[in-house]
Amino acid sequence: MLLRILTAIILIPAVVALVWYGxxxxxxxxxxxxxxxxxRELFALGDRHGLRGFRKWTYLCAALMFYAxxxxxxxxxxxxAGGLTLVRHFxxxxxxxxxxxxxxxxxxxxxxxxxxxxxxxILPAIAISAAGLHFIVFPFSFVVRINEIEPYGRALxxxxxxxxxxxxxxxxxxxxxxxxIPMAPALSPKKTWEGAFANLIAxxxxxxxxxxxxxxxxxxxxxxxxxxxxAGQMGDLIESAYKxxxxxxxxxxxxxxHGGMLDRIDALILAVPVVWALYLLTIxxxx
Length: 287
What we know:
There is one protein chain. The chain is mostly helical and 287 residues long. Helices cover 72% and strands 6% of the residues. The strands form two sheets. Strands 1-2 form a two-stranded antiparallel ribbon. A two-stranded antiparallel ribbon has the order 3-4. Strand 3 and strand 4 (188-192) form a beta hairpin. Helix 2 (24-47) runs antiparallel to helix 3, helix 3 packs antiparallel against helix 4 and helix 7 crosses helix 10 (261-286). The N and C termini lie far apart (45 Å).
């Protein structure tokens, strides 16, 4: 626990400072690095099942995915008369998410045809590579899109981080001292419904304070908080399934006291796209 607390004391202020003051390009690059480290750990879990993915190709496409999301924020939109919209793309904003997915697919096909691996390994390799890109990289890359929402992007990234951090902390302590009813014993025996409820309440409290700070619609922010929290808890559980299936406690050991990078961002992976989508649909859409 002491090592866990010390790591958090060092990392949390650094992450907050980066989000609040860092250039958008640097934040996108570091987010891509985090995703690739998590992807690396997923491949290590896959190795325990005999799923040897196309690692280098997937890492490259992961970096391209974050560049594509960053590029999407470089587009300047102007509303014209008659309901028309003019979109101006800046130099360098030439890659889209759809293009990256197509590049990834055709690359996997090419590697599968040209590789010297035994034929029974081709399908598992494509499967674990596609799973990594679609279940880790793609949803987590929306942190870049959140960051580029004007004028509250940085605050919304902090909101997403604090929402998950507060929920995880509440779930840990309430589950440890008051938890009685197992939530998903087959996936994570220590998780309880009491902890899950505390997780949700903590996220709603975060949503309330951020709604006041951003002067946003309270009901919309509470809805975003609730659904993002539920998505985050689902992300936590599915990562527990990955680890339990591979018979390991942590996805890695890169963060002392916290396990691997995938362990740290499992909830964020699914919470991030929910915050992005619901903010655009509710608060910005209503504006």
